[in-house]
Amino acid sequence: MGTRRASVPSSPNSTPPTTTPETSSWTVDQLSSLDKSDEYYLRTFTFRVEGTLFKVPQCRFVNESPIFRGMYSLPQQADAEGLSDDKPIDLTGVEKLDFTRFLRVLYPLGVQLSHSHGPTGPVDDWNSVLKLSTMWRFKDIRNLSVAQLVPLIGSLEPVMQVSLG
Questions:
Q1: What tens digit of pLDDT does each residue of 35-69 get?
Q2: How many Å apart are CA 125 and CA 16, to the nearest integer?
Q3: Nearest Cα to Cα of residue 131 among 165, 107, 82
Q4: How many other CB atoms are found less than 10 A from the CB of residue 103?
Q5: DSSP H helical segments within the chain, as ranges?
Q6: What CA–CA distance (Å, rounded) separates 22 from 148?
Q7: What CATH number does the domain located at 35-164 have?
Q8: Which residues pair with 48 in a beta bridge?
């Protein structure tokens, strides 16, 4: 069975992508012999949090967290934990909402028009980011969450400030 590939238009006025006979006849061997970009050939991790699977690029987890770097710095077997939906990294004790908020900062979806990625509002959002970035030692993400929380905390009731620590 041949792999089908779409040709991609090179300009906005080009015709839509189409599959051509030249691009659909590549064999598995030919595809596996292609060079892979060092920067944009992204490997993924699959996490399970409260019964939900999340598949995200490995790069920031491995590059920014000594916890994950230590776990995945060596080459992994194809069936290693986190490399497939069948064998996800189980984040027991992590809440789905906290993990989603953390991922919004780590991997924002859409174009960001400012330097502060992630939630721009509720203290709870940034508190989730602070909790997980501290747990997994994401230094820059932790610093960002603290910087975002400082002005937000000042506007809270003193009881709420104490509860956030």
A1: 988 888 888 999 999 999 999 999 999 999 999 98
A2: 40
A3: 165
A4: 19
A5: 28-32, 59-64, 66-72, 96-106, 123-135, 139-154, 158-164
A6: 52
A7: 3.30.710.10
A8: 53, 90
Q: For residues 147 and 129, is the Cβ–Cβ distance under 8 A? A: no
What's the confidence (pLDDT) of residue 153? 76
Confirm if 99 and 54 have CB atoms less than 8 A apart.
yes
- Residue 84 vs residues 28, 57, 119, 128: alpha-carbon distances, Å: 20, 12, 29, 26
Q: What does the mean pLDDT of the chain come to?
A: 79
Q: Give the chain's length.
A: 165
Domain residue ranges of the chain, discontinuous segments joined by +: 1-34, 35-164
Q: Could you report the per-residue pLDDT of 106-125, keeping only the tens digit for each?
A: 998 875 545 444 455 688 88
Residue 48: its H or E element: strand 44-49
Long-range contacts, stretch 134-141, CB < 8 angstroms, 24+ apart: 136/61, 136/65, 136/67, 136/68, 137/65, 137/66, 137/67, 138/64, 138/65, 138/106, 139/64, 140/64, 141/64, 141/102, 141/105, 141/106
143 to 56, 76, 150: CA distances (angstroms): 22, 31, 11
